[in-house]
Amino acid sequence: MTFSVSPPLIKADPRQQALRIFLAGVAAADPYQAVKRCLLQDFRLNAWPKIHLIAFGKAACAMADAAQAVIPSVLLAGTNIAVTNYENVRAVNQFEVIGAGHPLPDMAGQQAAQRIADKVATALQGELVLVLVSGGGSALLPAPHPPLTLADKSQTTALLLACGATINEINCVRKHLSTLKGGGLARLAAPAQLHALILSDVLGDDISAIASGPTVPDNTTFADAIAILKAKAIENKIPVSVQALLNKGCAGDILETPKSDDPLFNTTGYTLIGSNTMSVRAAIKAAQAEQFDVQLYSENLQGEAREEATKLAQHAKQLLQAGLTRPAALIAGGETTVSLKGTGRGGRNQEFALAFALAAERCALPPCWTFLSGGTDGRDGPTDAAGGLVDGLTLVRLRAAGGNAQALLDNNDSHAALQQSHDLLNTGATGTNVADLQVLLLQP
């Protein structure tokens, strides 16, 4: 799908233009406005005598802020709880806010998960459990299935991340190692009613995958989880306790996650209030306002980051060879993966950016391009960067600083590379999370 705009052309710094386009996509996923709008338009709040309010994910504080601003205090039951990553922790009226580890879970998250489980279990028939869900919830609320430990789950998750497993594959395994994920929270809330307001960080908005689907049915099985581990050749690397639990579940000795036909879902529901698709549309609109001819490159960008970078560079080369007469913007949304083979630091967006710079050089792409790849949450992998913002002179700057771009990429050390070339994208924590956005600007 291609969108076009009319002249006049406006000369501007393409790096600043790419950043503005990206930030417009982030703003479209504003969790405060989304929750407030939904509660005011779609809910008759006095239909319940009590509302049990919990929030978890990277956008938990903003979502909680909106909910407490709309719901009358007299309806709120007990202590409201919000769990978010440490970078996004801030005070919220009428809430206990708990910081926890992400992307790897920690003991604070496990304790928070138990607090939430205890609160939800007190809800009575006829009352409402209102759950505010955003990306990152899987890691932030670890609730290991006995007798597993947090270390068992963390080691398993780390192995899955390192071998390039997709978010759906990781979630399938995590659901079967947890008491909250995969519909576990909904099971605890019964017989009370439950409704979730969901900010999606999952491509295609598969509700069962967002935060590992704690409030919705899970139609994956223990056998599916085992098959994923075998396919990734890590079934013998995960802790023995995890292997034993999955085998017991496969044999029927442990209760499966609740499926779509479970009666408990007769009293549950959800509303999708934000997604990557909505942010991609906002980025397209912003690019049009910047006077670009706009092309939607992909709204479901997946695969190895460096491979996708090569494909994008080749596509850009074809566009330039066809003859551009006006500045063009290619917009994408998605979530790539990285198979870790080195010892460096970075994330999928930084790796994508560095790999694109190298692919552009291999393609002999003229230096008339600017490329941004960023996580909408403001954090890419285990770093303080949101991603990378590179251009036709990135490799020149990197080499002038003494860096070897290919060697750094091979070592998965994209953070060091982009730091040397002054191309790190730093936004700080954004308070939302709807996966990643990519912006490629081409000049004729």
Detailed description of the structure:
This protein has 444 residues and is an alpha/beta fold. It has 2 domains: 2-27 and 277-442, MOFRL domain (glycerate kinase, domain 1); 31-143 and 178-220 and 257-274, 3-Layer(aba) Sandwich (Rossmann fold), CATH 3.40.50.10180. Helices cover 39% and strands 17% of the residues. It has 16 helices and 13 strands. The strands form 2 sheets. The protein has a 7-stranded mixed sheet with strand order 1-8-9-13-10-11-12, sandwiched between helices. A 6-stranded parallel sheet has the order 4-3-2-5-6-7, with helices on both faces. Strand 8, helix 12 (305-322) and strand 9 (328-334) form a beta-alpha-beta unit. The longest helix is centred in the last third of the chain and has 18 residues, at 305-322. It is globular. 52% of the residues are buried. Mean pLDDT is 94; it is low at 1-10.
Provide the β-strand percentage band: 15-25%
Identify low-pLDDT runs: 1-10
CATH class of the largest domain: Alpha Beta
Strand runs, count: 13
Biggest sheet: strand arrangement: 1-8-9-13-10-11-12
Kindly state the mean pLDDT as a whole number? Answer: 94
Main β-sheet: number of strands, strand sense, barrel status?
Answer: 7 strands, mixed
Q: Structural class of the secondary structure composition? A: alpha/beta
Q: Give the ordered list of helices and strands.
A: EHHEHEEHEHHHHEHHEHEHEHEEHHHEE
What is Rg? 22 Å
End-to-end separation: 20 Å
